[in-house]
Amino acid sequence: MTETGPLERRALVVDDDAGIRLLLKRILVRHQFEVDVARDGGEALEKILAGDYAVIVLDLMMPRIDGAHVVRYLEQHRPDQLGNVIVMTAFGASALADVCPPVARHIEKPFDVNHLLNEVTETYWMSGDRYCPSKNPQH
Fold first, then answer.
1. Are 27 and 55 in contact (CB under 8 A)?
2. Rounded to whole angstroms, what are the CA distances from 87 to 30, 47, 97, 108, 120?
3. Which is nearest to 57 in space by CA: 79, 80, 29, 89?
4. E strand map for the chain
5. Which of 7, 28, 69, 111 could be disulfide-bonded to 33 (CB atoms 3.0-4.6 Å)?
6. What tens-digit pLDDT sequence spans the chain (139 residues)?
7. What is the arrangement of strands in the sheet containing 55-59, beginning at the earlier edge strand?
8. What whole-number distance in Å separates Cα of residue 113 and Cα of residue 16?
């Protein structure tokens, strides 16, 4: 996969837990996604700056640069990517206060794989040109 490849079926998984990164990558690859992984927000920002993703699964609590910082960066510099973010947290709804809004989708850890796949699928179909109400008016 090239770093500047098309948005189509590209996902970024960002989590400091290697087991979760591996699990999510395997799940998404089985569902025909090309998957990049990042250990923290710093790595995530490097990858986001190099190319667009149809889905970004982002843990909130990480060392170095956390998920909330990544969301704030996207809000200021890449607002087009905000709709592609699914935030994960093990700390419940109170941990989402810093990122919701602008991020609308979230998953609590431990997560149900089917729920995760539903969120990823909806996010994918709502990203990019696949869904644009202004370009596809209802008749």
1. no
2. 21, 17, 12, 8, 11
3. 89
4. 10-14, 34-38, 55-59, 85-89, 105-108
5. 28
6. 334 444 578 999 999 999 999 999 999 999 999 999 999 999 999 999 998 899 999 999 999 999 999 999 999 999 989 889 999 988 766 666 666 667 778 888 888 999 999 999 999 988 754 433 333 333 3
7. 34-38, 10-14, 55-59, 85-89, 105-108
8. 19
Give the Cα separation of 51 and 69 in Å (integer). 19
User: Radius of gyration (Cα) for the chain, nearest Å?
Assistant: 14
**Domain coordinates of the chain in residue numbers?**
10-129
State the fold for domain 10-129.
Rossmann fold (3.40.50)
Q: How many residues does the chain have?
A: 139
Q: What DSSP state is assigned to residue 12?
A: E
C-alpha 25/C-alpha 27 separation (Å) is 6
The pTM of this model reads 0.83
